[in-house]
Amino acid sequence: MKRQPVHKPSSRLGAWIAVVAGGLYFLLPLLATFEFSLKMLREGYSFEAYKLVLQDPGFQQSFAYSALMAVFTIVIGLLLVAPTAFWIQLRLPRLRPLVEFITLLPLVIPAIVIVFGYLRLFGSDAWLPLTGSERGTDLLLVCSYVTLALPYLYRSIDAGLSAIDVRSLAEAAQSLGGGWRVILLRVIFPNIQSALLSGAFLTFAIVIGEFTMASLLARPAFGPYLQLIGANRAYEPAALAIIAFLITWAAMGLLQVAGRHRRALREATATE
Q1: Please, are residues 192 and 160 in contact by the beta-carbon 8 Å criterion?
Q2: Residues whose CB falls within 8 Å of the CB of residue 89, separated by 6 or more in sequence, listed in order
Q3: pLDDT one-digit tens code per residue, 194-239
Q4: Core vs surface per residue 17-46: b (16+ CB within 10 A) or e
Q5: What is the radius of gyration, based on Cα positions, of the chain?
Q6: SS3 readout for the chain
Q7: Cα(78)–Cα(30) distance, rounded to whole angstroms?
Q8: pLDDT the model gives residue 65
Q9: Which has fewest Cβ within 10 Å: 26, 102, 132, 172?
Q10: In this structure, are residues 195 and 154 in contact, taking their beta carbons and an 8 Å threshold?
Q11: What are the residue ranges in the chain where pLDDT is below 70?
């Protein structure tokens, strides 16, 4: 007869102490920032700083611009990474270490080095002068964002593909006469929906808070706006920090909701 493991109260107490200490380390600066953002008016706490920020045309324009760039980045990134990860899983597994190494490079190479390389290759005097026009600079910025999001996109999609039997699904679809476009859009992508959404939300969070590339390319993005407000005002930067934090956590919350909905749908399908 096997003996049941005994959990010592001291180990549980230590775990709770670690959780509480980590929570305080994370929450106290956030609460202090929130409390400071409410002190703009002398007569007491108010949301005046949030009101001024949300009514600022610069905030609206910069956030709308970054959100639009995030949408383009997500679309281009998914179209580039998802078929590549699928093909590597299905036909070229030996290239997986090489592709993983390449996708890790944006985490090793500083963003300022990447953007200076782009400026060197696509500057106004280069063979393809993308920076010669606003739309060309926007395209270059989107490509820069795709590069920054590549490690997160690839790992999210690769994890989703590893969780399903890609080969069996592809062979079954081919036996029914489906082409590769049909296999990807109707068979593979619905089965890795949570992974695609995970990569999309992570990409959105990266684009919204990115500063270096948007600043050096002189684009009206949300990151440079945050830096400009932080350098010239007192209470509005704290309000902006809280707003950016809420946007990031809203994206993560949507990710959790999508993941739970997907798991519930799978369980319902399995019981049927």
Answers
A1: yes
A2: 96, 158, 161, 162, 166
A3: 888 888 888 888 888 888 888 888 888 888 888 888 777 778 888 8
A4: eeeeeeeeeeeeeeeeeeebbbebeeeeee
A5: 23
A6: CCCCCCCCHHHHHHHHHHHHHHHHHHHHHHHHHHHHHCCCCCCCCCCHHHHHHHHCHHHHHHHHHHHHHHHHHHHHHHHHHHHHHHHHHHCCHHHHHHHHHHHHHHHHCCHHHHHHHHHHHHCCCCCCCHHHCHHHHHHHHHHHHHHHHHHHHHHHHHHHHHCCCHHHHHHHHHHCCCCHHHHHHHHHHHHCHHHHHHHHHHHHHHHHHCCHHHHHCCCCCHHHHHHHHHHHCCHHHHHHHHHHHHHHHHHHHHHHHHHHHHHHHHHHHHHC
A7: 33
A8: 92
A9: 26
A10: no
A11: 1-11, 255-256, 258-272
Place of tokens 């290239």: 95
Minimal CA–CA distance to 149: which of 111, 96, 94? 111
